[in-house]
Design a protein that fits this description.
The chain has 7 helices and 6 strands. The chain is α/β, with parallel strands linked by helices. The protein has one domain: Nucleotidyltransferase, domain 5 (2-Layer Sandwich). α2 packs across α7 and α3 runs parallel beside α6. The longest helix is centred in the last third of the chain and has 20 residues. The radius of gyration is 16 Å and the shape is globular. The N and C termini lie far apart (about 50 Å).
């Protein structure tokens, strides 16, 4: 499905995915949390999409993260996990679900490697420039741990994964054009280690600095 055609289909789940869901060889993933502190702010929502105009939202209104079906999907090593700002999402998934996501693709890293003509690498900016799609970020700071999420929250969460496959296609072409695809792949491969450093307390320390 073209990223700009048709209304998205959003499926909402409490605590886990249904057992029979499959996402193919690549899956777009994002998370919603109570804040950006890995050791303070808990995981509230994991959203997923196969890039086909459908999004699945898994809501955790309580801190029960058993979620065997979601864990299975996130653990599949033959499936590429596409994120925007994977550093945070990979870390929060590791922290609360105990899963090390591999292999990983990050549209934000790809953007920073090829869109060097700008300092703006937000998902909203990429969707506007590369896909001609306008995203609303109105619900970005809402209460994701609430027992009931609003329709607006559902739409916001879904938008964070619905277009990642299409962005990856565009950015892959730019990476090839600029001869930076191998460099990008090396950055993606390091992300699980970067996440472990963040969780362990080296989030703001550059250990490569002299």
């Amino acid at each position: 499905m073209n990223a700009q055609q048709g209304a998205p289909e959003i499926h909402f789940h409490i605590g886990d995915l249904p057992e029979d869901i499959h996402f193919g060889s690549s899956i777009a993933i994002d998370t919603e949390t109570q804040g950006l502190n890995l050791n303070r702010d808990r995981l509230c929502v994991v959203q997923l999409s196969a890039g086909d105009g459908t999004a699945h939202l898994v809501h955790f209104p309580t801190a029960d993260y058993s979620a065997p079906n979601l864990r299975r999907i996130l653990s599949e090593e033959g499936v590429t996990k596409i994120f925007h700002y994977a550093r945070f999402d990979v870390a929060i998934i590791r922290r609360y679900l105990g899963i090390v996501c591999t292999p990983v693709y990050c549209t934000k890293i790809a953007s920073k490697l090829v869109r060097t003509y700008t300092d703006s690498h937000s998902l909203k900016t990429l969707c506007h420039e590369l896909l001609g799609i306008e995203l609303s970020k109105e619900q970005q700071s809402s209460d994701w741990a609430a027992p009931d999420l609003s329709t607006a929250q559902h739409a916001y969460a879904a938008n964070d994964v619905l277009y990642l496959h299409a962005l990856k296609d565009h950015l892959d072409g730019m990476l090839v054009r600029e001869n930076r695809r191998e460099l990008a792949a090396a950055c993606y491969a390091f992300l699980p280690v970067r996440a472990e450093l963040d969780i362990a307390g080296w989030g703001e320390v550059d250990i490569f600095h002299h």
